């Protein structure tokens, strides 16, 4: 059980839940967060948005019953979480890096930025940018926010050596294609639907270049060489 420290609301459908947590996660790892409602048995995988001095931040969008329940949680309540799980990003502090995020795919790049040198360039495409600029203003991010359209069109792929991406599959495949064309290094974080979160159920299986992969154990982060497509 983790004690809830506070809950911040970024905009009408996006929240950051802050919890007490002793384990120090790696950037790109995730937690399984369990609704209290017994009818929703499975945990919901949520990426590490930030971790600092025993405080774990999870940024999430309300899309269904589980995340709706999380949005009602209050400081002082206990919440069942398991993790940190999965293989995270490899931080390359000496490379010129850019992160390309769609929607809540933004979440893992905030914590990743703590492991990179200087200010991290983040291209963030979203349907609703409301509140993000203000909420993230104290992080060392050079944040380009775009509402609607294709965020990949805003990126100068030749200007960076290393890319990281997370978000809708169609966006990640566009990033993958460009990184292949320009011969750039890329790590992708897949957001497959999950059951257990720790390798026991096969719900998150995806096709890798060398056979089936479990996104929860082998990922969620994969290098571009490991995948044909996101
Ligand atoms: C490794 C990983 C990290 C994630 N990190 C975050 C995060 O940091 N913040 C965040 O808001 N969400 C994240 N997600 C997605 C999140 O787990 C789902 O949005 C959540 O489980 C939905 O639960 P629910 O009960 O509210 O919705 P449900 O009632 O279960 O589903 C509502 C809708 O959301 C869709 N949905 C459910 N799970 C996913 C998924 N994995 N990918 C895409 N669509 C989904 C369903 O198809 C349905 O349309 C992550 C998923 C994975 C696999
Ligand atoms: S979610 Fe169960 S094996 Fe990955």
Notes on the structure:
The protein is mainly beta and 230 residues long. The protein folds into two domains: 2-85, Beta Barrel (Elongation Factor Tu (Ef-tu), domain 3), CATH 2.40.30.10; 97-226, Rossmann fold (3-Layer(aba) Sandwich). It contains five helices and 15 strands. The protein has helices at residues 65-70, 107-112, 132-135, 169-181, 215-218, and strands at residues 2-11, 14-20, 30-34, 44-47, 50-52, 55-61, 78-85, 97-102, 120-126, 141-147, 162-166, 185-189, 205-208, 211-214, 221-223. The strands form three sheets. Strands 4-3-7-1-2-6-5 form a seven-stranded antiparallel β-sheet. A hairpin with a 2-residue loop joins strand 1 and strand 2 (14-20). The longest helix is centred in the C-terminal third of the chain and has 13 residues, at 169-181. The mean pLDDT is 95. Bound molecules: flavin-adenine dinucleotide (FAD) and FE2/S2 (inorganic) cluster (FES). FE2/S2 (inorganic) cluster is lined by residues 194-197, 199-204, 214, 216.
